[in-house]
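[User] Could I get a sequence and structure tokens?

[Assistant]
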Amino acid sequence: MSTEETPAAPRSLAEALRARDDRSLAALLRSRPDLLTPVPGDLTQLATRAATRASVVRALERLDRFAQQTAQALAVAADPATYDELLGLLAGDDRDPAVAAALPHALGTLREQALVWGGDERLRLVRTARELLAPSPQHPSPTGLGPTVQEAAAGMSPGRIQQILTTAGLPSTHDPVSAVAALTALFTDRERMAALLDRAPADSLEVLERLVWGPPYGQVAPEPAPRLRWLLDRGLLLPTAPGTVVLPREVALHLRRGRAHRAPEPVPPPVEAAAVHRPQVVDATAAGQAYTALATVEELLKEWDEGGPAVLRAGGLSVRDLKRTAVALDVSEPVAAFWVELAYAAGLVASDGEADERYAATPAYDEWRELPAAERWARLATAWLTATRTAGLVGGRDARDRTLSALGPGLDRSAAPEVRHRVLALLAGLPEGAAPSAGSLLARLRWERPPRGPVEAPHERGRAGGKDDDLRGRLARWTLSEAELLGVTGRGALSAHGRALLGAPAPRAPQADPEGPGDKLPVHHRPTPAPAPLSPAEQATAAATAARLLAPLLPEPLDHVLLQADLTAVAPGPLRRPLADVLGVLADVESKGGATVYRFTPGSVRRALDAGRTAADLHAFLAEHSRTPVPQPLAYLIDDVARRHGHLRVGAASAYVRCDDDAMLNEILADRRAAGLGLRRLAPTVLAAQADPATLLEGLRAMGFAPAAESAEGDVLIARAHAHRTPPRTAPEPVPEGPPVPDDTLLAAAVRAIRAGDLASTVPRKQTGTPAATGGALPRTTSAETLATLQAAVLTGETLWIGYVNAEGAASQRVIEPVRVEGGFVTAYDHTADGVRTYPLHRITGVAELADGDR
């Protein structure tokens, strides 16, 4: 290839972007979606936006560990640097083959995201990234390197520099610039530098060892010790401020054998399996947890069926209400917060919005209850996977030191869905039935997205008290525990329905089969590529697949119970909904587990009678749904409560008691426990009370009677519980982490618009009439010249370049093909907008023809 045919090296990031193809530009916009808001007018605007501080910080934070190390190495390299120089900084003098193999991919990532541009002979880190990563006394470099000799010696006197040269064994020079260059050449020459350090005292070398991996700054006394004086005299330490010295970058790199980092991490740490279980055991365990999750959510909403706890003024549940909920569900408070937040994320619970605002089930809860069990679980699991609300934060403190409450504000964390998806994806990459070691999983996540600030050495990771308290680490730990509670995992391993929910492919079979579910086998393997997050349509399909896989594993609802002589009923499994609803009124739940035990009491039987059931109804119900004969004590209990039920009548006077049995009224009046009710006889069969009817009912029931409420007409009131529902509510929307990732259609349209805008701002133009402005300014022509040129272009079909000012006063440059000029408007195909547009002639500042080579 001739020299003329060789493409010139780009002189700026904009030129480098201009040389990319459309696919490469789309990849940049996909990886950095913040650059699309709004769509840049041309590639120069795109390059300017890509170099802004906020965008660069965001891009650097989303790099993996080795890509970050590559950018950090470029920040301390020469500008521009060659590929070989960069490889030397990362691989060191030993040229680590793992680093050499991983560097092209890391460098490609930095180039794709427009953080690095230029060819392999002239690699340039964007200026903003260099400023962020370059070392300074205020912001030490992540590499631990200090300034170069030239930077550190900038404030030194020429005489002092010459003294350093002489002491170091170098000939003096005529100017400070050449003196600094000679000292730099000494420090970068491996042989001469080794010879110089061979003559150093041992205690001086100890000083260098303490500074070599950073921080490179140290404090010295006004009269330095001999070991420091030896280093200062030879420039191995240079003063930067009174009492402060620094280890020059070239000296540190020699001591590090050329490496910019103590421990380059070119390969992600593997996720190790702490235990391997039979897949059938994992799926069965996860299915059991899934059933428990459904039962827990139903129990929670049943507790709130007639109106749940009040909403705090600032929003959310009070600490007392959360404790009560935890007691009712028989779980700890953090677990109760998880179930409450899950129901809220699924749209099953919300505030009712009334004056006395309380939490209650939504109408969607009634629809959810009618779905098959597997579909109900899939809806809960999907809501959990995509929710940004984070139950693990409940009980913590916000930025204003206020307690974060369940269902309250401040619980959204944009990174939560991404971390959940990534944790499950890493589990999906393990062999089927393998449960990960938490330490290795967290180490992998930290490599893929390092926490902000300096990262601890690899051998320190995973220890208690380390960096596991960063947000992403806590989100990962919460994900593991919540996935187990929800039944996505079983015994720590991803279940088959959990894998389907994620949209992950079937895993490879493990190399060795465990002898039992408790055997611990170390599993080391390179994980398969993680499945990408699913679109809403794909997520719905995945949820349906997960429900289909889970359905056969869930127990079938039963239509019977086992009645026992001790006034209990045993449900050997889940009950069908009508049976469970009636039994829940007729008896109290005594214990839960694989079998639920219900206990019949006078109060529970009276509750069924108050709900409108008769004794005959209850006998028939039990006989129909019991696989054992109805025990005689239970039949006697029902008859005895029914015989006394309604014998006393309570109505509203403010309240009264009516009974045909005069002796029973005398017994009530003589009972000391009735003193607080303010009873007095109005007639032989009527007592009046100062208490309201509800208080009077409760008081008489506490005394052992079974009164019934009656209406103003004297009819018995049926005390059936009325479910309280909120108005229709939508589930809370997830709070995205930055702009959403654009789809292919939006990317294609954005790339076309940027290309068209760039064409309008960069193509050569021919002058028409009054010379057009240059340097990117709008063309200026008279109205007559503008009209004549546009009319001529309609006849010839030529493409023109115009300047246009819209109604808001914003000016832009456009490339158009005029189609029609009439009525003070020009209709044309606009290459910039990729569509037909109509422009008022009075808003066109001028027009110019494109050069012949660019039509």
